[in-house]
Every structure is written in structure tokens, then in C-alpha cells.
Design goal:
- By secondary structure, the protein is an alpha/beta fold.
- The chain has two domains: 240 residues, 3-Layer(aba) Sandwich (Rossmann fold), CATH 3.40.50; 114 residues.
- A five-stranded parallel sheet has the order 2-3-1-4-5, sandwiched between helices. Strands 6, 7, 8 and 9 form a four-stranded antiparallel sheet that branches.
- Strand 7 and strand 8 form a beta hairpin.
- Helix 6 runs antiparallel to helix 9 and helix 12 packs across helix 13.
- The two termini are 30 Å apart.
């Protein structure tokens, strides 16, 4: 379970929560006592955009580039290409639509240029849309094809509409003051590659109450883009050296995109397990539903619709009636779920999960919790 995973110093845990309730409950556990030397306090990395006075310092364009110098030329190119690909998908999500061929090409070249600019932020990206000439020294460091693109093509009138579309969308994102604070740090103080390989407990509050639906989706996908890169970068280390990573996503439908697809298919190769909680299958596109069905070994279902029960029944080796029979028992403080484990359970089993399990653990008092949060701000704010 989550508490057991958090308590194991040999593995890393990432929790993404849009409602904040799960994270608040975890942070209140005495397991994180800042005054106890053997507690989990030193492993905590809390990313909370609602911390207005001292927001976490995050930078999409500074994801541990210093490490690339220690890689072989082939490893550097693989890691760099991975970053460019991830940026292309993230920027596509930022625009809120599938990228056209022209937009996709622009973003890939922009990503390559942004990675050469020291201290580049989202404001640097806007400046590039206005005038590329001040960045001539960085452009000179690019390969011949990328140099030619910026020197000969990028300023052409045929790209004017594309540049303006990108700039308009970036300004729309930055019109949310929280994003302006988060994305303006010249250097990130959160290195996900280090976090995943050193047993950190990373709690990411995507703050739906503050950012609303669209802002939560953008921020969550931004975080997942950095996490995906950190996970795939583990290809450069020996399999035996990769600490287990467990990624938990509550209300996972908030972030469904190509990154989630990639994680479902690729993460296990790098010793990363995913637990995704969401409400119903209608929140998945037909393509993503197929990927879910084919790439999840453990399925839990409870409180589902009749339509979802009919869909899940064959995959979980049971009937729709069995799935629909799962109940929550408030008096007994348990909730029933159907459990199916591929190649282990011949048919779905009914299990009872205690309600309030996390809340039943010893709690921190207010002063202890404030000291815990203050230490986190010192590290990443």
C-alpha cells in the first residue's frame, strides 16, 4: 500500500493529487516528524503551487542538463532527443490541440534552442517569438540544420501566424499569476532524476481549487513531462542500479495525454510502477482505453457504472453483476472492490479496503507540520 511504499527507503514514491486531500493526509502523518532523525522528513519534496510566498522553483528547460556532460555521445543524443520529443508533446497540450506539421517543426527546433540558453524560462520563449536575433550566439551552437532554420526560415512571413498562436497561448497561460511565479525560475531546484534515484517522496499538489480545470491539466502535464524524462533517462544506468519508483495519480483523468500513454507502455522497463485512480472509462479515449486494458496488470473496480461493468467484466475474468455488487459500508468503515491480477487470479476477487486507514496513523501537531513545510521551502523554494 501507499504507506508501506513511502516507508521503504530503498524506493521512491511520487503522488500527484489535484484535490489535495491525499497529500494533506500524508503530510499530517507522524512518519514525517521533522524532529525525529529517523523520520521521512528528509526525503520529502512537496511541490505546491498554492504556496504563493515561496513557490517551488521549476524550470522546464533545465532538467539536469549538467548530467549530459558525463554521458557518452550516444547517451547524450538519446537523452536530448527524448527532451525534444517530450517538449513537443507538452507544447501541443499547451496549445490545446493537435500540432500541425508546421507547429510541430517549430516546437522541435525551439526546444533545441531553448536547451542551449542558460537560465531560459517561459519568458525567454516569448522573447524568441518576438525576435530571434538577440539569440544569435546560442543559435550558432546548434547543428547546421537548426541554424539554417532560425537564420533563414523562422522569421519568414509564412511562420508569422504560427509564432503569434504560440505567443498568444503562452500569454494566456501566464495570465494565471500562479503559473507566472512557477515558470519564471531561471533554474529548477527540483531534479526529478535525482529524486527518483535517491528514495525521495515527491508529493505534487496540482491545486484544482486554485488553478481550476485547465490550469490543473497544464500543471499536471508539465510535471508528468519532467517525470517521464527522468524515468526514461534511467536507460543510461545499469538496471541493477535503478531504485524502484511508484507513481500514484489520483483523479488521473485530469492529465490523460500522450505522456500517460508512454508511461503505461514504457515505465516498467525502468522499474517504475503506476497506480492510476479515475472515475469511469468514458474519461479515456478509445486509444487510451486499449492501452489501459493491455498494459495494466492489476485492476480494482468499485462503485462503477453498468456500462463500465460490462466492459471490464471479460478483462477481469468475471461478470458485470459481480462488479456491480461491490458496496461501501459506512458502519463497518470498509469499501468493497473487485480485484483482478493478470496471470495470478483466475477470476476477480472481492476485497474489503478499510476506510480512514491513512487518518488512523499518529499525526503531527500544527507546529511540527509548519516546521516540516518550512524545511521543504528552504530546499526547493
Amino acid at each position: 500500500d501507499l504507506i508501506r511504499a513511502v516507508g521503504d527507503r530503498q524506493q521512491s514514491v511520487v503522488v500527484i493529487d489535484s484535490q489535495g486531500r491525499l497529500i494533506r493526509n500524508l503530510l499530517s502523518c507522524a512518519l514525517f516528524d521533522p524532529d525525529e532523525p529517523e523520520s521521512l522528513a528528509d526525503r520529502l519534496v512537496l511541490i505546491d503551487p498554492s504556496d504563493i510566498d515561496r513557490p517551488p522553483a521549476l524550470n522546464l528547460f533545465n532538467p539536469g542538463l549538467e548530467r549530459l556532460a558525463g554521458y557518452s555521445p550516444q547517451q547524450r543524443e538519446i537523452a536530448f532527443n527524448s527532451l525534444v520529443d517530450i517538449y513537443g508533446r507538452f507544447f501541443g497540450a499547451l496549445l490545446g490541440a493537435e500540432l500541425t506539421g508546421k507547429q510541430s517543426a517549430v516546437f522541435r527546433y525551439l526546444a533545441r534552442l531553448m536547451l542551449t540558453i542558460d537560465g531560459a524560462t517561459i519568458h525567454t520563449l516569448i522573447a524568441l517569438m518576438d525576435d530571434v536575433r538577440p539569440f544569435a550566439p546560442q543559435i550558432a551552437k546548434l547543428d547546421a540544420t537548426a541554424r539554417r532554420f532560425f537564420e533563414k526560415e523562422f522569421a519568414r512571413k509564412s511562420f508569422t501566424a504560427t509564432r503569434q498562436q504560440i505567443k498568444d497561448r503562452l500569454y494566456a497561460v501566464l495570465s494565471i499569476p500562479t503559473f507566472d511565479r512557477l515558470f519564471s525560475a531561471p533554474k529548477s531546484k527540483v531534479d526529478f532524476f535525482d529524486c527518483l534515484n535517491s528514495g525521495k517522496i515527491v508529493l505534487i499538489d496540482t491545486a484544482k481549487g486554485l488553478l481550476k480545470d485547465e490550469g490543473t491539466a497544464i500543471f499536471g502535464r508539465f510535471m508528468l513531462a519532467l517525470i517521464e524524462h527522468a524515468i526514461t533517462e534511467r536507460a543510461n544506468s545499469d538496471a541493477a542500479e535503478r531504485a524502484p519508483v511508484f507513481l500514484y495519480m489520483d483523479e488521473a483523468h485530469e492529465y490523460f495525454d500522450d505522456t500517460v500513454e508512454t508511461l503505461l507502455v514504457e515505465a516498467r522497463k525502468f522499474r517504475c510502477g503506476l497506480t492510476l485512480a479515475h472515475q469511469n472509462l468514458a474519461q479515456l479515449s478509445p486509444r487510451l482505453r486499449q492501452i489501459f486494458m493491455g498494459n495494466t496488470s492489476v485492476k480494482l473496480a468499485g462503485g462503477i457504472t453498468e456500462a463500465d461493468a460490462r466492459t471490464l467484466g471479460p478483462d477481469m475474468r468475471t461478470t458485470a453483476d459481480f462488479l456491480l455488487a461491490m458496496r461501501k459500508h459506512e458502519a463497518a468503515k470498509v469499501s468493497e472492490f473487485a480485484l483482478s491480477v493478470r496471470n495470478v487470479t483466475p477470476r476477480a476477487l472481492k476485497i474489503s479496503v478499510p476506510l480512514g486507514y491513512l487518518e488512523s496513523h499518529p499525526r503531527l501537531d500544527r507546529d511540527q507540520r509548519e516546521r516540516l513545510l518550512a524545511r521543504n521551502r528552504e530546499r526547493i523554494g
